[in-house]
Amino acid sequence: MPTPRRRPWGQLWADAPWDGKARPPAPVRAPLTEAALIDTPPPRGTLSLRRRAWGKLFQAVPWERRPIVPPLAPTMPPPATSPDAIEFCFTPTGEADETSRLAPQPLHEVPS
Amino acid sequence: MTAVAGSYVRLLNGYFSRPDFFREDVEKGTIRTPTGTRICALTDDFLLGFRSAVQFECGKATDRVFKACGKKWGKTFVERFDRELTDHFGVPLTDVSAGLVERCLDEAFRFYGWGKPAIDLTDYDAGLVAVSVADPVMPTVVGAADKPTDALFAGFFAAVFTHYAKTDLDCQQTDCPSRGADASRFVIGLAARLKDVPKWVGENLPHTVILRRLKATSE
Q1: Domain extents for chain B?
Q2: How far apart are CA B127 and CA A17, in angstroms?
Q3: Beta carbons of A51 and B135 less than 8 Å apart
Q4: If you classify domain B44-216 with CATH, what class do you get?
């Protein structure tokens, strides 16, 4: 019987005994963990402005009011207009500190 | 694992921390995620003012209003979380191992600035799941209070886990930094089983005792 965290996410929640009554163990499917582990790099020019080199950031500013950020990739769905599609990001006022509010750094990144 | 020429190697589970996640449009003054969801940054001052306004308008119903808001927020969040990560991994999210999805949830919380969540599955076999959030938003900005102040997240978790359990679940807050705890703690289960939790919280029973009582009543 695999530990709960080794079960597929959907089965973990769908098979929980929410009524508190013990039930015979259901057959556990193996989770799919073999998804490709290497991501393709993001297209050039889509890096966050603050992740660019400081000097290049200002050299690249379209001072003549040309678009500074390339448009979203054509395969991307059009930006949602429903109010439900807005996500809220909480930012503490005052001085930033080293708390979990800070956006995490990219994980497992190995520069070439 | 070797670096790809002119690029880098990154494990696929870093969806929310991918370097191109924020897509800023300086001219329009907007930030969007790769799927077009617009990001709206709220300050502590705004949250405090919003909470005060809801308290003024709703009085004793404030917690119920925040919980209802949290449910709506959680429902839209989990649908988007499901869709985006399913696209990211290339397989249905429900088939991915629970540990990996939990890590993605953790990453989403930290990315959006909501705190650091942890799911406790110790009482899973009793049909109860506990969740804690360290450095939670609302209690942190509200400060000291005589009762838990995270009804928003209680509604949020109820909606999120209802989505995956495919049965109506409730979530009650049992511990809160506003009352001196080190994190917000919640218990998730069927509403009928959790109905006494608010009374026990009012009696200042600790989270562990509440969980023990819940287990005892179901055995």
Answers
A1: 44-216
A2: 5
A3: no
A4: alpha beta
